[in-house]
Amino acid sequence: MEPRRAIVSLTKCNACHSDLEAHGRNRNQIEHCVECHNPTLTDAARRTPAQMPAESVNFSSMIHRIHTGTTQGRPYVIYGFGGSANDFSKAALPTDARNCSACHINNTERLPIAPNLQNVVDPRGWLTNPGPAGAACLSCHTSKDAAAHVQLTTAPLGESCNVCHGPNSAFSVAQAHAQ
To answer: pTM for the whole thing?
Structure first.
């Protein structure tokens, strides 16, 4: 079994959060977060039928959405234990959201990403099952136009994001997110 690649570090999280812990203070390692917060996880089990559709709580989508809450075109409300509504729509990073290295290590925000990653279940998104690269982009770029762009660059063979957004491309992630 291939180990998970390190994308972000708890040290970087704690630069802002001091002592990041979740779910009753018993989860404080990113390696543990992604075990549950995987591409197929939503908050459906915590929502009543009146609150559907569910929201994606895939780790990368969730973290990007939480940290860009004030710039989102759609609210980000996750239902948790006891049916609690957790509204992250007004949350934001204390730094420019394009500062990917505030959280990411070793340029892991750049394309290409690992070829064996699952599509993401996103019942509230314009695309409800985007590929992993598209899902990461759509977690910040939430417009219908952005979703149409992701859909146009996705084929039965996979995502072709790397063609235009790869490291040596005119619209690379680094170039597009340059500050």
So the answer is: 0.88
